[in-house]
Amino acid sequence: MTGGSSGLGFETALALARAGADVILAGRNGAAAHEALHTIRHLVPGVLVRFEKLDLARQQSVGDFASRLVARNHPIDLLVHCAGTMESAQRQVTADGFEMQLAVHYLGPFALTARLLPLLRQSRHPRVVQVSSLAHRQGTIDFDDLQLAREYEVRAAHCQSKLASLMFALELQRRSDAHGWGLLSVAAHPGNPGVEWPAGRAVSTAQNERKQHAGPSQTVSAGALAILFAATSTLAKPGGYYGPTGSFELAGPPGPARIDEKARDRNVSRRLWATAEQLTGVRWPAD
């Protein structure tokens, strides 16, 4: 579970722990993770939950994390990519030279999933979940300026990264089917959940109303339901996308979500996959 120290990730991790899962909170903020661990252990006595250092913005950290898990050789049944990064008005670049949002929302999960594929394939029913966003509908994959070095705008960076995340989920399912990897690859979005606070606490209604995004909202725990549906429901279909089913998909019970047509473009998806392999240096197996 990446991004499991707070907000949506915490609520998802807590629910999985309550269901009896052995949960690894993977993240770069050790202090926040240990606070989350303390809370989960208090709420779910006897739970198997631990922290592992992982910075998705650094390919070296992704490789080190995966190597530690592969060395332990324990099957992975579920991999949830819920980590996010704060949107900044100024363009931020990772140590690898990648635009920050693209690195955390797409390139990091892409490389991590590939490196953990041997452990996923040891599971009888492995599942991989990407947490995308309604913002994917405003996204564009700009191969001429993928890192937004020439012209940076924070919203464009966020929308592109979330579109890439959703396209990764769909392309991963196609390639799993073609190569026999046995994965169930799905994606989810939380709608318009409350502002994320440590340990998953949602803000008050008054504070919610001051959010930048207009329209209905719901608590963080309710926003996590779509992620949990994608992660655990027997109704989740290969290559599915799930989110709140209420007005404008902003709130409500989880169910199928609308995928923008550009996310289904197979030619762009294949090129994006090849670009990610080139940038990260990670190669997926052919079979």
Radius of gyration: 18 Å
Structural class comes to alpha/beta
At the first level of CATH, the class is: Alpha Beta
What is the CATH superfamily label? Answer: NAD(P)-binding Rossmann-like Domain
- Molecular shape: globular
Give the strand order of the largest sheet, numbering strands 1, 2, ... along the chain.
Answer: 3-4-5-6-7
Q: What percent of residues are in strands?
A: 5-15%
Describe this entry's structure for a reader.
The protein has 287 residues and is of the alpha/beta class. It has a single domain (7-280), classed as 3-Layer(aba) Sandwich (Rossmann fold), CATH 3.40.50. It is 41% helix and 11% strand. It contains 8 helices and 7 strands; from the N terminus they run αβαβαβαβαβααββα. The protein has helices at residues 7-18, 30-43, 59-72, 100-120, 154-179, 205-208, 220-232, 266-280, and strands at residues 23-27, 49-53, 78-81, 127-131, 184-188, 241-244, 254-256. The strands form 2 sheets. It has a 5-stranded mixed β-sheet with strand order 3-4-5-6-7, with helices on both faces. Strand 1 (23-27), helix 2 and strand 2 form a beta-alpha-beta unit. Helix 3 packs parallel to helix 4 (100-120). The longest helix is centred in the middle third of the chain and has 26 residues, at 154-179. The two termini are 26 Å apart.
Compact summary:
The chain is α/β, with parallel strands linked by helices and 287 residues long.
Task: Outline the secondary-structure elements.
Layout: H1 7-18, E1 23-27, H2 30-43, E2 49-53, H3 59-72, E3 78-81, H4 100-120, E4 127-131, H5 154-179, E5 184-188, H6 205-208, H7 220-232, E6 241-244, E7 254-256, H8 266-280
Parallel strand pairs: 1-2, 3-4, 4-5, 5-6
Antiparallel strand pairs: 6-7
Helix pairs in contact: 1-7, 3-4, 4-5, 4-8, 5-8
